[in-house]
Design brief:
- 27% of the residues lie in helices and 26% in strands.
- The chain has 11 helices and 20 strands.
- The longest helix has 14 residues.
- The two termini are 23 Å apart.
- Bound molecules: pyridoxal-5'-phosphate.
- Pyridoxal-5'-phosphate binds next to helix 9 and strand 9.
Amino acid sequence: MTVGNHRPAQIVIDQKALYENISNAKKHLQPNTNLFMVVKADGYGHGAVQVARVAQQAGADGFCVSILDEALQLRQAGIVDVPILVLGIIDPLDAMVAAENQISVTVGSIEWLQRAEQVLSDLPNESPILNIHFGLDTGMGRIGFQKPSELKDAINYLESNNNHFNFEGIFTHFSTADSSNTDYFEIQKQRFKEFMEVVDKKPKYVHVANSATSLWHQYGQTNIVRLGIAGYGLNPSGREIADLPYQLKPAMSFTSKLVYTKYVEKGRSIGYGATYETDEDQWIGTVPVGYADGYSRNMQGYYVLVDGQKCPVVGRVCMDQFMIRLPKKYDVNTPVTLMGTSGNETITADDIADHLGTISYEIICGFSVRLPRKYI
Ligand SMILES: *Cc1c(COP(=O)(O)O)cnc(C)c1O
């Protein structure tokens, strides 16, 4: 994918904000709890390697990713001697690659162990050990063992023919930790307890907490927090739970510049489909960003900030450009804030998410790699 280094549009990452969010999270952990920064999806769009480096300085003890390639990317960038856990299910055929790179993987079935065992047995001498974390489905319904008896069988399997696996961790994931209603959270917590009753010898890591769990819940005897969205400075609940034990500072903003401005007479149309018609003479500016950059076509009707003022997006957002109404004449190269602060106005990822009917997570990881990431 081409990176647009020669056009005025970029995702700006405030490394100090990242650092503060992560070190504050770390300070609020129980003693002996590890902070694993979740850097899946290119660090939620912030750049996985750069986030990982800042996170290490801020006290992160390890990383979580979703797919094996994301783990390998960190290793190749020199992030070695630090635990990395793949939260998704990898292909057992890749078990050797994971083991060779000391990448821990999630396991949710005996079949997976059996198939990985075959792969790891192909090189009987010197075959590296694969670190595994058993995933428990306590109610998320995504991946993991569904019943304590299934978990028990998998543990027995390891005990009877384990030459290749190290039972390093066990974990679950809450589906409603970001809600003010805690009923379902409590059900999941109870099921986790029942699972843990069949584990005679606890592995090194036991973990249940994502950002929301770490911010708002008591979650018992565990020793990793998997910190995602809060590390990036966003509230996991959107606006539902406003109470926070420490301040979150959004690390990402999105800026561009006007590339074209013009005075348009009343009665002219703007953009594909001619959906906007000037109802009076007005100034119109063009921003060189479009839906190919992850700036949704549905941003029509929303606004950006120019010189601290809200300027409506007029007409349809094109693939690579869109138009805005300016309150007065502005020159080419005037800065435009698509997300972030200009003067006294701020557009947050949650504001954009609300407009688009989604959550901030989808906004920040949806900006395409064509937008260069600038680190400040
Ligand atoms: C993505 C993810 C996290 C991080 O979630 P946040 O809400 O961003 O903190 C933690 N655990 C698992 C299993 C995940 O998939």
